[in-house]
């Protein structure tokens, strides 16, 4: 819309100028140091209009260059993230860390980089590195995103990843502490329910597992025959 308006702005200025100053074009003198610029009012209006259009097209050109560079960086980051995910599935965890951390400053949402790298380090039993990446993810959420749905989504993903890692390490007490806030925040989230099921079975918290069983049935977390068998066993 702006481009359309500007495309007619310059001719419109010229037409209006000639209509308003048909007999007396006026006189404009601009003196800069020892230089004088003499022109008519109509000529000055046309000159200003031309300058405005020139400035506008220059700004559009610079904006297009900036947008192209941003799209290129974003595409490069996405490519690295996809390759890192493939390496994670292949079990090449060192390359996962290398690819994701090299793009961390260019990533659209670095939470993905931090969490997948934390899981890769966990697979190699580098627990200190894994905890460090989890901490960096939490710091990013607190520092860069102050509120909104995206912040809540990132925090939920972080907490799920942390409980999953704690469970894989056998830190069952910490995992149990972490699962209750997740059940409260996302009671129908499939992965939250899977983690809760594993934790409650390991800790023999059968009443807690019975409590979430209706939700597990509602979202069809398992086939109905498995839900019935689990319910019978728990009772």
Detailed description of the structure:
- The chain has 235 residues and is mainly alpha-helical.
- It is built from ten helices and two strands.
- A hairpin with a 2-residue loop joins strand 1 and strand 2.
- The radius of gyration is 32 Å and the shape is elongated.
- The mean pLDDT is 83.
Summarize the structure.
Helices cover about 80% and strands about 5% of the residues.
Shape verdict: elongated
Rg over C-alpha atoms, rounded to the nearest angstrom? 32 Å
What is the straight-line distance between the termini?
68 Å
Number of separate strands = 2
What is the number of helical segments per DSSP (H or I, 4+ residues)? Answer: 10
The low-confidence runs, each spanning 5 or more residues with pLDDT under 50, are none
Structural class: mainly alpha
Helices and strands, in N-to-C order?
A: HEEHHHHHHHHH
Which strand order does the major sheet show? 1-2
Q: Beta-strand percentage? A: under 5%
What is the helical fraction, as a range of percent?
over 70%
Largest sheet: 2 strands, antiparallel
Could you tell me the mean pLDDT? 83
Layout of helices and strands:
Layout: H1 2-20, E1 28-32, E2 35-39, H2 41-90, H3 93-102, H4 110-123, H5 127-144, H6 149-169, H7 172-185, H8 190-202, H9 206-218, H10 224-234
Antiparallel strand pairs: 1-2
Helix pairs in contact: 1-2, 2-3, 3-4, 4-5, 4-6, 5-6, 6-7, 6-8, 7-8, 8-9, 9-10
């Amino acid at each position: 819309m702006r481009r359309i308006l500007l495309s007619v702005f310059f001719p419109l200025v010229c037409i209006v100028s000639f209509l308003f100053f048909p007999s007396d074009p006026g006189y404009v003198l601009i003196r800069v140091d020892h230089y004088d610029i003499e022109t008519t009012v109509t000529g000055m209006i046309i000159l200003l209009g031309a300058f405005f259009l020139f400035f506008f097209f220059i700004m559009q050109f610079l904006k297009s260059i900036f947008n192209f560079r941003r799209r290129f960086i974003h595409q490069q980051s996405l490519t690295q993230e996809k390759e890192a995910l493939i390496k994670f599935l292949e079990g090449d965890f060192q390359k996962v860390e290398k690819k994701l951390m090299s793009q961390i400053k260019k990533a659209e949402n670095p939470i993905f980089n931090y969490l997948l790298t934390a899981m890769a380090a966990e697979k190699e039993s580098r627990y200190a590195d894994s905890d460090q990446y989890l901490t960096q993810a939490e710091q990013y959420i607190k520092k860069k995103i102050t509120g909104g749905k995206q912040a809540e989504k990132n925090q939920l993903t972080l907490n799920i990843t942390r409980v999953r890692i704690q469970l894989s390490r056998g830190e069952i007490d910490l995992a149990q502490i972490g699962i209750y806030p997740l059940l409260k925040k996302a009671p129908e989230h499939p992965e939250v329910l899977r983690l809760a099921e594993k934790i409650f079975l390991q800790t023999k918290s059968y009443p807690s597992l019975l409590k979430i069983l209706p939700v597990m049935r509602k979202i069809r977390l398992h086939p109905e025959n498995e839900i019935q068998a689990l319910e019978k066993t728990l009772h």
